[in-house]
Design goal:
The chain is of the alpha/beta class. The chain has 14 helices and 19 strands. It has two domains: 156 residues, Leucine Aminopeptidase, subunit E, domain 1 (3-Layer(aba) Sandwich), CATH 3.40.220; 319 residues, Zn peptidases (Aminopeptidase, 3-Layer(aba) Sandwich), CATH 3.40.630. The chain has an eight-stranded mixed β-sheet with strand order 7-8-10-9-13-17-14-15, sandwiched between helices. Strands 1-6-5-2-4-3 form a six-stranded mixed β-sheet, with helices on one face. The chain starts with a strand and ends with a helix. The mean pLDDT is 97.
């Protein structure tokens, strides 16, 4: 069930909900706007602050009870020293998650001020925290079930045009994140290439967009032999999925968003270790992020042309699977020596990037992929790796990630790294050895961008989490939906 977000003007003490979350900074006096709410708690907010039982540090929480006709409970949430879109969104996520766990059907959220970007971030954050994937669980008897958080009201000084615009954008981003996280969380036997294609068709139908899906036979005719090398080990039909959103001028070149859609990656003949292999259902998180971003972009009706392209298949060992040492000819005519069949995502993206660049002549092209374990070694699970051949596109992506609360960090894409990809028998090989693995993977992709302004997001460390993050539990994070939306939004302004 989707979370219904709304805005409500007035004093937070007057909102009749089971729970209200209140975002507070550290080192700051209690805002005057909370005076009535403080009285409703019998002065407990003031006493907790004075006694330093609640300091307002990042992610710190304190649950209080209130009396009167307003909220029944007050959850204080610390944002740390700075009130920013990212910190407010994080606090809202904690409130959404806590409210859902408590079994309250409705909640509210308040933060100081009326900044539109903070409100938008709070709305997206509340949805992020409240989201759960329960489709495959057997539910307890109805009499024993907790209520599911169905609605959250964001308390603002005035429900003016700016607040309404922030509400609309926040809802759009929340919807995109929900689609991306649901797709990523689904097991590989359910979220297949055909299911991704069906999801794309559904988005296109709802928003009146153009969607074209091509299968194995069409791609064979197109000469996408790099993509098809990965798909030759599986009986499932691979899919090249294209969604076109036309919000700009007819003559305007589009932004192309490209996603890696490996619905399951066993590694192929270069098979992965058995431990944690089940997490390779997340290897389509790039595709999920791009599809989610398209949902948000279409809802926001941004004045720009955008094309989403997904390359989706599974990478399986079989009697027909590609072998280490095989050489294939890609869509753009270059030959690739396959050294490691577990470096399959770049083989899929090579053909999709070439096709995107040649067909749509994009003003900018960005791909998102859980491409390398090496990026986790380099940056951990905190930042997305960004590489590219166009400094303007890279800088815009870094800024977009900052605005979105999805941190990223640039890695060098110097031509010297390309030397690691020299092959004895082909134009290029698909892996460059242990050193600088994230960089050489990006340098491989750079051979297939056909001169388009391009950057690459390696989201292997950020698209899903193996640990509870406090704001959300284990599983998909929604990265890079907001980064892609912010990037496109920046280009549309």
């Amino acid at each position: 069930m989707s979370l219904l977000s709304s805005i409500r003007a007035g004093d937070p003490a007057t909102i009749p909900v089971p729970l209200i979350g209140v975002a507070l900074q550290s080192g700051k006096a209690m805002p005057r706007a909370l005076a009535r709410l403080d009285r409703a708690t019998g002065g407990e907010i003031t006493r907790a602050r004075r006694a330093k039982d609640f300091k307002g540090n990042k992610d710190e929480t304190l649950l209080l009870y209130a009396s009167g006709r307003g909220p029944e409970r007050v959850l204080l949430v610390g944002v740390g020293p700075a009130l920013t879109p990212a910190s407010v969104g994080r606090a809202a996520a904690i409130v959404g998650r806590r409210a859902n766990a408590m079994g309250v059907g409705s909640a509210a959220f308040w933060f100081s001020g009326s900044d539109g970007s903070m409100l938008e971030s709070a709305i997206a954050g509340g949805s992020l925290g409240a989201w759960e994937y329960t489709a495959l669980r057997t539910l307890p008897p109805e009499s024993e079930r907790n209520a599911t958080l169905a609605s959250i009201a964001f308390v603002v000084p005035a429900a003016d045009a700016a607040a309404k615009a922030a509400l609309s954008a926040g809802r759009a981003i929340a919807a995109g994140q929900q689609i991306a996280r649901t797709l990523a969380m689904m097991p590989g036997n359910l979220c297949t290439p055909e299911f991704l294609a069906a999801t794309a068709r559904d988005i296109a139908k709802r928003h009146k967009l153009r969607c074209v899906v091509r299968g194995r036979k069409e791609m064979q005719a197109m000469g996408m032999n790099s993509f098809l090398a990965v798909a030759q080990g599986t009986p499932q039909d691979p899919k090249l999925i294209v969604i076109e959103y036309k919000g700009g001028k007819r003559s305007e070149r589009p932004v192309c968003l490209v996603g890696k859609g490996l619905c399951f990656d066993s590694g192929g003949i270069s098979i992965k270790p058995a431990a944690s292999m089940e997490q390779m259902k997340f290897d389509m998180s790039g595709a999920a992020g791009v599809i989610g971003a398209m949902e948000a972009i279409a809802r926001m009706k941004l004045p720009i042309n955008v094309v989403c392209l997904i390359g989706s298949t599974t990478n399986m060992p079989s009697g027909t699977a590609m072998n280490p040492g095989d050489v294939v000819k890609a869509y753009n005519g270059k030959t690739i020596e396959i050294i490691n069949t577990d470096a399959e995502g770049r083989l899929v993206l090579a053909d999709v990037l070439s096709y995107a660049a040649r067909t749509f002549k994009p003003q900018a092209m960005v791909d998102a992929a859980t491409l390398t374990g090496a990026v986790v070694v380099a940056l951990g699970h905190t930042a997305t790796g960004v590489l590219g051949t166009d400094s303007k596109v890279v800088d815009e992506l870094l800024a977009a990630g900052q605005r979105a609360g999805e941190p990223s960090w640039q890695l060098p894409a110097w031509p010297e790294y390309r030397d690691q990809l020299k092959s004895d028998v082909a134009d290029i090989k698909n892996i460059g050895g242990r050193g600088a693995g994230s960089i050489t993977a990006a340098m491989f992709l750079a051979d297939f961008i056909e001169g388009a302004p391009w950057a690459h997001l390696d989201i292997a460390g950020t698209a899903y989490t193996e640990t509870d993050l406090g704001t959300i539990g284990r599983g998909p994070t929604g990265v890079p939906v907001r980064t892609l939306v912010e990037f496109v939004r920046g280009r549309a302004r």
